[in-house]
Specification:
Layout lengths: L1 E5 L2 H4 L3 H13 L4 E4 L25 H11 L4 E4 L2 E2 L5 H14 L4 E6 L4 H6 L7 H17 L3 E4 L4 E5 L12 E4 L3 H10 L2 E3 L7 H16 L8 E6 L6 H13 L4 E4 L16 H15 L4
Parallel strand pairs: 1-2, 1-11, 2-3, 3-5, 4-5, 5-8, 8-9, 9-10, 10-11
Antiparallel strand pairs: 6-7
Helix pairs in contact: 2-3, 3-4, 4-6, 7-8, 9-10
Length: about 300
């Protein structure tokens, strides 16, 4: 199994020295991947209209941060979890992703989602209400630009007149994973995706049923379900080493291919860890990997 680690810059800070130190430590400890979330704007919490969008957490631009981290590390994978695709210009994102993949030596795994924060779409002058359908066309445009030197595309939202990007990914594709939990998300993965980042379900029958649903959809598209990866998040915020091992064993039996230790996420059933210092996070990542290393 692939073991990733979410970068906790909102806790430990995000200046260049800290980013370098934590990324190098994670790689030295044996983590296979580093992940970053994506938010461009946060609303003023004093403004009631901000709602869930209130507050300014520390979120580096993933392409900039991963470009820096790529130069600090040698082999660790770099993954967005997730980049909000529909609030960005498609061709520009394809170019940024390709550049990162080239500069990192093919280490980029591209997780995308549709987002929930309408405030960001307004600020970036993009339509929040058609973001799902528009993202489907975005995926097709990006995959074409990565594969071919020149692309002609005439869609509902995108029109390319025999043009291309340079550089392109060395393998002419970038692993494209989707976050989200609606049936339409699974349908998109079945058509275009290389994997699913599933956060909503704890270990149990419902999670297994969702995985099986995705596999059936992948088969219906004429693809091999084994070619589509499955990722879950975990945390040291609850349980002991014994509990962490039992959870990983369950996910492994369920066919999960990627597990990411995310110690700062508190959504759905996930619990963030109590500590917020660099020492707390380094200790947590060491404890977790030492506990499960023989199961990977």
């Amino acid at each position: 199994m692939h073991l990733g680690l979410a970068l906790p810059f909102g806790d430990i800070g995000g200046d260049g020295k800290i980013v370098r130190e934590f990324a190098e430590l994670a790689e030295a400890e044996g983590y296979d991947g580093l992940t970053l979330a994506d938010h461009v704007l946060g609303g003023n919490p004093k403004n009631p209209a901000s709602g869930r969008a209130g507050g300014l957490g520390l979120f580096h631009d993933p392409f900039v941060a991963f470009g820096f981290i790529a130069a600090c590390t040698k082999k660790v994978e770099l993954s967005t979890q997730v980049l909000i695709l529909a609030q960005r210009q498609t061709v520009l994102v394809a170019k940024q992703a390709a550049s990162l993949d080239v500069l990192s030596g093919g280490r980029f795994r591209f997780g995308v989602g549709v987002g929930w924060n309408e405030l960001e779409f307004v600020g970036l002058n993009e339509n929040f209400h058609n973001r799902g359908k528009r993202s489907e066309e975005q995926v097709q445009v990006m995959k074409a630009l990565w594969a071919d030197p020149y692309v002609t595309f005439d869609g509902k939202w995108h029109h390319l007149p025999d043009a291309g990007i340079n550089p392109r990914p060395p393998s002419r594709k970038i692993p494209l994973w989707f976050g989200g939990h609606m049936d339409v998300t699974l349908q998109r993965i079945a058509k275009w995706g290389d994997g699913w980042m599933m956060l909503s379900e704890p270990p149990g029958p419902k999670a297994v049923a969702e995985f099986d649903k995705l596999r059936r959809l992948v088969e219906a598209e004429g693809r091999d379900p084994a070619s589509v990866g499955l990722e879950v998040w975990t945390s040291t915020g609850t349980g002991t080493e014994k509990d962490w091992r039992e959870e990983l064993i369950f996910w492994k039996k369920a066919g999960v291919t990627h597990v990411t230790l995310h110690n700062t996420f508190g959504g759905y059933h996930h619990k963030r860890m109590a500590g917020r210092s660099m020492t707390d996070h380094v200790d947590a990542m060491r404890r977790y990997r030492n506990a499960v290393a023989d199961l990977l």
